[in-house]
Amino acid sequence: MPRWIIVIVPKKLGWSIIMLVCCLGLLFYFGSEPMAIYTLNLANSEIKYDIMLDPGHGGIDPGAIGKGDIYEKHYVLDIVLQMAEILEDQGLKVGLTRDHDRDVSHLVDKGTRHRRDLLGRFKLMNQAKLGISVHANATKDPTESGAIVFYMKDRYIDKVYAQIVLEELEKVQVLNERKVVPRNTLILLKANPPVILVEVGFMTNPTDLEKLGDPQFRTNLAHALSDGIIKFVQWRSAEKTENSI
């Protein structure tokens, strides 16, 4: 017959063991996800904006660099500032993670500057009902070109949002990926509201770089992305109205 060994654990030690088991369980459940992200998501953030616009990079972080030392951070800021005007004209309350050449690492006090910058943007995303992060891509292959739209994997609303924006973006820029791309590793996509990340082109592709250097093309991108956002807001409002009937 099997013999059972009964171990008597002191009460204080017993609670310590229980807490340790709970912590290990949380780590197992969340896998490799940074706990800081879940902490920021659980924090009570006041919703101040209809949408948060994020121009990627800024400050000492130039982002992708095109031939002739042309920086991604400048192009995406121009696009996003135009988007802010367009969306405000449509009655939306718009937030910006940055409105000039800086990063937002000052919003978080732990980690490397790059990590603090990402978490700072993430924190700001949670102050809005909706978010978008605008970037320009780079790769070792100069033939890679076109736009890509990323959304949070397994989130239906986020996928709808991404698809609507992609359809508008396709009207002004060729697509690198003809379908929206799911990801679960991009930090900004993990925020509470629906958030998408858009790569508007490749800084390492001569054709895309020439396009991005054209102010009119950047204006076209701003209008396309804004149109997609507005159409998604209208779609979401209609869905909520229909579900409440």
Key structural traits:
245 residues, alpha/beta, Aminopeptidase, 7 helices, 45% helix, globular
Specify Rg, calculated over alpha carbons. Answer: 22 Å
Q: Provide the helix percentage.
A: 40-55%
Please state the second-level CATH architecture. Answer: 3-Layer(aba) Sandwich
Average pLDDT:
88
Number of domains: 1
In short:
The protein is an alpha/beta fold and 245 residues long.
Give an overview in words.
With 245 residues, this protein is of the alpha/beta class. The protein has a single domain (46-244), classed as Zn-dependent exopeptidases (Aminopeptidase, 3-Layer(aba) Sandwich), CATH 3.40.630. 45% of the residues lie in helices and 14% in strands. The chain is built from seven helices and eight strands, in the order H-H-E-E-E-H-E-H-E-E-H-E-E-H-H. The protein has a six-stranded mixed β-sheet with strand order 4-1-5-8-6-7, with helices on both faces. A two-stranded antiparallel ribbon has the order 2-3. The radius of gyration is 22 Å and the shape is globular. The termini are far apart. Residues 26-33 have low confidence and may be disordered.
